[in-house]
Amino acid sequence: MSHLPEHLLVGYRNFMKGRYAAESERYVSLAREGQAPETMLIACCDSRSAPETIFDSGPGELFVLRNVGNLIPPFEPDQEFHSTSAALEFAVDVLKVKNIVIMGHGRCGGIRAALAQGGKPLKPGDFIGKWMSLIHTAAAAVASTSVMTATERETALERISVRYSLNNLRTFPQIKAREEAGELTLYGAWFDISAGELWAMNRETGDFERPSLD
Amino acid sequence: MSHLPEHLLVGYRNFMKGRYAAESERYVSLAREGQAPETMLIACCDSRSAPETIFDSGPGELFVLRNVGNLIPPFEPDQEFHSTSAALEFAVDVLKVKNIVIMGHGRCGGIRAALAQGGKPLKPGDFIGKWMSLIHTAAAAVASTSVMTATERETALERISVRYSLNNLRTFPQIKAREEAGELTLYGAWFDISAGELWAMNRETGDFERPSLD
Amino acid sequence: MSHLPEHLLVGYRNFMKGRYAAESERYVSLAREGQAPETMLIACCDSRSAPETIFDSGPGELFVLRNVGNLIPPFEPDQEFHSTSAALEFAVDVLKVKNIVIMGHGRCGGIRAALAQGGKPLKPGDFIGKWMSLIHTAAAAVASTSVMTATERETALERISVRYSLNNLRTFPQIKAREEAGELTLYGAWFDISAGELWAMNRETGDFERPSLD
Amino acid sequence: MSHLPEHLLVGYRNFMKGRYAAESERYVSLAREGQAPETMLIACCDSRSAPETIFDSGPGELFVLRNVGNLIPPFEPDQEFHSTSAALEFAVDVLKVKNIVIMGHGRCGGIRAALAQGGKPLKPGDFIGKWMSLIHTAAAAVASTSVMTATERETALERISVRYSLNNLRTFPQIKAREEAGELTLYGAWFDISAGELWAMNRETGDFERPSLD
């Protein structure tokens, strides 16, 4: 009986012979001195949207929260268990990151589910439905836009939800305060796996644009 | 005004010239056919614990949930927003993954916070404290073991919390059902960045052991 | 009637044809000039924990005390027969060793016995119980940590007992004096036979770490 | 600051590349199945008298007690900490060894100390004197034998002390019982490093003889 799936063991062996062997000093130093990432990246669980791959990031570079649909709920200081809020608090108050990037992506199953249900919260016990209902107003508006194709509606809601989550980030008092003090910058991005296209949100207009890569 | 942090743009350029150029067919195919990962991996947000790096995983291989301390709360079918439960539901009910791996890691800031508070839930508005209080009973037991060093207590709690979260996974009816039907296997792992050490949980005893890599 | 077990005679013949033949000058010289080992090594009687094997040591290199659980009792200048104290006195006052290393090991039967009895001293005539009760406070603390597996509790106590014995070494006046004068260094180590893993105690933190072997 | 003496790290590296690499299956199996040595060997701490070297023994073969002068005190079921008795109890009652071998050696510093003090117990705090006073009657007798050379007196007392300790072994009820039941055999041996000479005690006469090695 193996204690890990075989494909992970194969991958780990490659890692140790390759990347770890090449960068072991950096790993040892990160262990000794602790992490100090400048950027928090919020992405989807989707297997085609790994931030460390897309941004070719090394160890210690990105503090990464991943949930379905890369959503941020609004600030709610109650007694519930909020994994998203705990991660934000750790990034902002403890690590004092300089950047938070929310990255949506194409062909997102969570967004598709939100559109399919037309923005209505689902029955109790349907965790995806409940979770995606965070954007149900926007989903309802987009779902009714019958002149757009299905793919256009998905892309639209994927980008709307990034802007929606950026707004929710600003409901956290310490995020708002640090942004106003110029100590923290909030960014939006959207990635599509097919052509490897990365789009960055224009922070003045909210539009998504291809960044210049020169 | 740049619309993305400079280090991400640099990394994205590397990705496009390197990995994407080499594997573009796989990316196009993953976009066309959708994701079908066999493994869900639950890891910490920590910047030194990226699953795709440690397991040298390609696009489409891992469905990844990342939260502080890689914790799974118990099943609670209420009306709250449960990002963790939504991700589990997506992985199990929609993607029908064959494996779920919970990977803890050394030097975990969330675990350290849980030990520092001695297992007591913190005041409202302290999201890290509230979130980590999921393991407060274990944290209290370990925190009182004064004959262990601080690092030994952390390592112990990091591994205990993996076992705790594996138990909570089994409180989700569909996970329990699929595991009993032999359609899903649950795994535990622990990674320490310094020496690149990966430990796999022995599924019979709960102990963490170095996997044979031959 | 043979006067030695056959396996020892076979081994001795191998020794004479192999190692002794190759190093006979060193043996002759060690006989003529006496021993002058720089290092005293305190290890368990366990048949899987032979210091000369693990450290590939030649004749004259290690002054070796072996008892169950590699324990050092505190300094007690009474009229009893103290084999451990006599060995320390010989190593420090007569041989003037520069290093004392206490090496614990995995799967230690003595430690297991200490945990099984929950730290309570046993009845008179139970020598293992009485001897291992030297660490009964630590054993009781570890034994009650039910969130750890049996193996995790054993490993924890194996390492705790090395630190405990190092502290007891310092209750011997001449050891304390020579250490403070910079003439003697005290070390802790832990070996596990399965993967041949050696861990060295960090002398500042008390943690056990894999030594770099480069 | 290194956490182990350099000569031990060098030796450990040799062990891993050499013996461990060649015998790793045996090590793994010994970890999984536990130790089951047939022979307990009681030897001196002296750096020139390592049983695993002299008998070319592999892992798992010898359960080894080492103290100054390879002495066994008589059975004393009191409340003191008896490291020697604990080791005997473990070997006989737990491991159920078939053989116990007491091996004295030439040029033994403990024996020399016993002769120098003429068999008189020393002042409190002199642990070597107190420990070696176990054989003070024999030491006094030999010390007064002025027609023997110093080396002859040492060799004589080294061998007398092996017989004395063999007798003490028989004061332990379970050792006496198992020997009488034919389940345990007691042996004496004496090794001199210079010429690599091993002598075995004739169990009928008590004489030390060179064993036939053919």
UniProtKB/TrEMBL annotation, chains A, B, C, D:
Its cofactor is Zn(2+). It comes from the Bacteria. Keywords: Lyase, Metal-binding, Zinc. Gene3D superfamilies: Carbonic anhydrase. The keyword Amino-acid biosynthesis does not apply. Reversible hydration of carbon dioxide. This is Carbonic anhydrase. It comes from Aquamicrobium soli.
